[in-house]
């Protein structure tokens, strides 16, 4: 959790970033745009929420601490996503499929620009939080670039993305880039124990989260999410031991049932299983993340050589890049399982 005396942010890890943002707030040396880069559920959104709340907090205008206070009317509005000077942009739902649209559209960015050009309702900063900015369409990205090139007074953009190479380099160059790294396992364990769960379960959930607090919290609060993860891991173990026809059948079901984000999540889970198999092959079973199925993983590890497992990891990363490049998901996954 954040230990800074000037801030009141219940954040797990990321102390270097919180300290830097505290300096920005207390010194008044604020950039007009920040780019938060890191994996999903690592804490980018939560830090963006508390940073924006601190900027509009009554304490900030009165040069008091803590920031945010969490009690003034402006903080309460921000907590409920009702503050009139904080704007959020993210992928919208498709009315027909009820799935998230592929891109953030230029219409969304233009609507944001219109709002940012208006006078502040409460004479505060105008703040835009753009989530999953890697999903900006080409037209939307170019339009956003104009806002970054000619920022309005007292306007701050907080842009969130998984990888900065997926954004226009001209956008990246106009932002203060803050890289969110995986949280230390010990910090996650301490946080989970603080939520009144036993140490063994805390260690298990922290290992499954791979340094992403949001994942650990999801598994802690939602048993169905934990059960779904277990099912996906066992399905992958089944794929590794199946013939090609059976693999293709499972892949067909996966691709039909999931959108691109869901497929990327599957790739992440698969890569961590392969990591465990490599650790077992290198006589390091105490370091595996999925200890609850350690026996099954040990049996599967006997099927593959370390060289083959390294090649599978390479192909998993390549498949992820193919999905980023909008290649056909079915073909990319079929090509992937042919390498197993």
UniProtKB/TrEMBL annotation:
<dbReference type="Pfam" id="PF09115">
    <property type="entry name" value="DNApol3-delta_C"/>
</dbReference>
<feature type="domain" description="DNA polymerase III delta subunit C-terminal">
    <location>
        <begin position="234"/>
        <end position="339"/>
    </location>
</feature>
<keyword id="KW-0548">Nucleotidyltransferase</keyword>
<keyword id="KW-0808">Transferase</keyword>
<dbReference type="Pfam" id="PF13177">
    <property type="entry name" value="DNA_pol3_delta2"/>
</dbReference>
<protein>
    <recommendedName>
        <fullName>DNA polymerase III subunit delta'</fullName>
        <ecNumber>2.7.7.7</ecNumber>
    </recommendedName>
</protein>
<dbReference type="InterPro" id="IPR004622">
    <property type="entry name" value="DNA_pol_HolB"/>
</dbReference>
<keyword id="KW-0235">DNA replication</keyword>
<dbReference type="InterPro" id="IPR050238">
    <property type="entry name" value="DNA_Rep/Repair_Clamp_Loader"/>
</dbReference>
<dbReference type="GO" id="GO:0006261">
    <property type="term" value="P:DNA-templated DNA replication"/>
</dbReference>
<dbReference type="InterPro" id="IPR015199">
    <property type="entry name" value="DNA_pol_III_delta_C"/>
</dbReference>
<dbReference type="GO" id="GO:0008408">
    <property type="term" value="F:3'-5' exonuclease activity"/>
</dbReference>
<dbReference type="GO" id="GO:0009360">
    <property type="term" value="C:DNA polymerase III complex"/>
</dbReference>
<keyword id="KW-0239">DNA-directed DNA polymerase</keyword>
<dbReference type="GO" id="GO:0003887">
    <property type="term" value="F:DNA-directed DNA polymerase activity"/>
</dbReference>
<dbReference type="InterPro" id="IPR027417">
    <property type="entry name" value="P-loop_NTPase"/>
</dbReference>
<dbReference type="GO" id="GO:0003677">
    <property type="term" value="F:DNA binding"/>
</dbReference>
């Amino acid at each position: 959790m954040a230990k800074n005396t000037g801030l009141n942010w219940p954040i797990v890890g990321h102390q270097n970033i919180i300290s830097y943002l505290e300096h920005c707030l207390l010194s008044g040396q604020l950039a007009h745009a920040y780019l938060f880069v890191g994996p999903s559920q690592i804490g980018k959104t939560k830090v963006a929420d508390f940073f924006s709340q601190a900027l509009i907090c009554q304490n900030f205008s009165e040069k008091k601490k803590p920031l945010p206070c969490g009690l003034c009317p402006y903080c309460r509005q921000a907590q409920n996503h009702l503050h009139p000077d904080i704007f959020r942009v993210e992928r919208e739902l498709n009315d027909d499929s009820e799935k998230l649209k592929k891109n953030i559209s230029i219409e969304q960015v233009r609507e944001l620009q219109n709002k940012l050009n208006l006078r502040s309702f409460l004479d505060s900063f105008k703040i835009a939080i753009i989530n999953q900015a890697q999903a900006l369409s080409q037209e939307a990205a170019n339009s956003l670039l104009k806002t970054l090139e000619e920022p309005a007074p007292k306007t701050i953009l907080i842009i969130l993305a998984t990888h900065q190479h997926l954004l226009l380099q001209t956008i990246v160059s106009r932002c203060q880039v803050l890289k969110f790294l995986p949280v230390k396992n010990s910090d996650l364990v301490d946080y989970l124990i603080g939520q009144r769960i036993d140490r063994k379960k805390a260690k298990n959930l922290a290992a499954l989260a791979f340094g992403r607090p949001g994942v650990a919290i999801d598994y802690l609060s939602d048993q169905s999410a934990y059960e779904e993860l277990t099912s996906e891991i066992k399905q992958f173990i089944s794929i590794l031991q199946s013939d090609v026809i059976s693999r293709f059948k499972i892949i067909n079901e996966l691709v039909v049932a999931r959108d691109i984000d869901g497929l990327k999540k599957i790739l992440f889970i698969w890569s961590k299983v392969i990591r465990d198999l490599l650790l077992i092959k290198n006589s390091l079973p105490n370091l595996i993340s999925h200890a609850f199925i350690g026996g099954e993983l040990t049996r599967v590890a006997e099927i593959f050589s370390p060289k083959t497992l390294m090649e599978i990891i390479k192909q998993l990363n390549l498949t992820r890049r193919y999905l980023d490049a909008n290649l056909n998901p079915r073909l990319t996954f079929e090509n992937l399982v042919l390498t197993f």
